[in-house]
UniProtKB/TrEMBL annotation:
Domain of life: Eukaryota
Family in the record: Belongs to the folate receptor family.
GO molecular function, one term: signaling receptor activity
Pfam families: Folate_rec (PF03024)
Transmembrane regions: 57-77, 306-326
Lineage: Eukaryota, Metazoa, Spiralia, Lophotrochozoa, Brachiopoda
Folate receptor-like domain residues: 97-266
InterPro entries: Folate_rcpt, Folate_rcpt-like
GO cellular component: external side of plasma membrane
Protein name (database record): Folate receptor alpha-like
Keywords: Disulfide bond, Membrane, Signal, Transmembrane, Transmembrane helix
Organism this protein belongs to: Lingula anatina
């Protein structure tokens, strides 16, 4: 629609420009017998009968019908692309290719033992963190000189959170897709159990940081690693965050949302010998989101398919416009 309006406006402006260039008074008959100026092989100076006018109008009509068909087809393509609950339950957060996968699958040698039966990440994804507390060449957990290494308990709980973030196959309903590679996928308001947040906070609250929001506050070195901005001061977590919930809700820019344990919520540190408590929570959220997206018309588009469809529609609309204009000026053409 926008494309069509642009073309119409363009033609109006061109026509108006021609009219405005005339500086001599003209009679009404002059304007009623003028033709638009095109190359001489296509146009005449004055209108005269043309028997092919009817066929041109018919062509414009048929082309318009084809354009309408593309619009209808587009609605069916969009409807087919709406995500189901199973789509959400088989969705992985996208990280650089060396760390993540497109769909969860078993990883028997994965260091994140809770996700060996079905993982969205590849083995050795957290090796650098366990060695020097740096992850994915972009997050240095020991960025303050007061305490360059995390305490053992903070390391363990942070590793649990890291494994959940990158490897969990149960986070699809809360994934927000990044726009381009390397992907910056993230979570949005994923519900975390208050007891889980308390464990993470209590293990790490004596660590140091110069960031409150670790997505938006850091400066970045030439290699893409977080660092303290100029004039930033390193403080204990207890001086940066007011509570456990404030810490969990803020550190990853609202990716997590702490809720009471009585509500459906996710855990990082569940017993791997027992059933994963996050599975039923994810399924309920996936079914709800699929139902809402279907009812509201929200869709997951295939970029390549929609690009082709939209391009065809624009070309079709342009053709209709051209034939429409041609039919109007046909009396002036050879």
């Amino acid at each position: 629609m926008a494309f069509s309006l642009v073309i119409y406006l363009h033609l109006v402006i061109l026509t108006w420009g021609v009219v405005m260039q005339e500086d001599k008074p003209r009679t009404a008959d002059y304007y009623l017998n003028r033709c638009i100026f095109l190359p001489t092989k296509f146009s005449k100076t004055r209108p005269s009968p043309e028997p092919e006018l009817e066929s041109t109008i018919m062509a414009a009509t048929l082309t318009g019908i084809v354009c309408l068909a593309f619009l209808v087809l587009g609605q069916f393509v969009e409807a087919e692309a709406r995500l189901s609950a199973e789509d959400y339950l088989n969705m992985c957060i996208r990280l650089p290719n060396e760390y993540s996968k497109g769909r969860p699958s078993p990883e028997p040698d994965l260091e994140c033992i809770r996700y060996r039966d079905g993982s969205c990440c590849k083995p050795n994804m957290t090796t650098s963190f366990l060695e020097d507390h740096q992850w994915m060449n972009m997050t240095d957990y020991g960025h303050c000189p007061q305490k360059p290494r995390l305490s053992p308990e903070c390391e363990r709980l942070t590793h649990d959170e890291m494994c959940f973030f990158a490897c969990s196959p149960n986070s699809g309903p809360w994934i927000v897709r990044g726009k381009e590679y390397p992907y910056s996928d993230r979570y949005n308001q994923l519900p975390v159990c208050a007891s889980q947040c308390d464990k993470w906070w209590n293990a790490c609250k004596e660590e140091y940081t110069c960031h409150r929001n670790w997505f938006t506050d850091p400066a970045w070195d030439a290699n893409g690693m977080n660092m303290c901005p100029k004039d930033a001061v390193c403080k204990k977590y207890t001086e940066v965050y007011t509570s456990a919930a404030d810490f969990c809700n803020t550190i990853w820019d609202g990716g997590y949302h702490v809720v009471p344990d009585t509500e459906p919520c996710m855990e990082f540190s569940f017993d791997p010998a027992k059933p994963n408590p996050n599975v039923p929570v994810a399924r309920a959220a996936a079914e709800k989101k699929a139902a809402v997206s279907g009812a509201s018309g929200l869709k997951m588009y295939s970029p390549s398919g929609l690009f082709v469809l939209y391009t065809l529609f624009l070309l079709c609309t342009a053709s209709t416009l051209f034939l429409h204009v041609a039919s109007k000026m046909h009396l002036c053409s050879e």
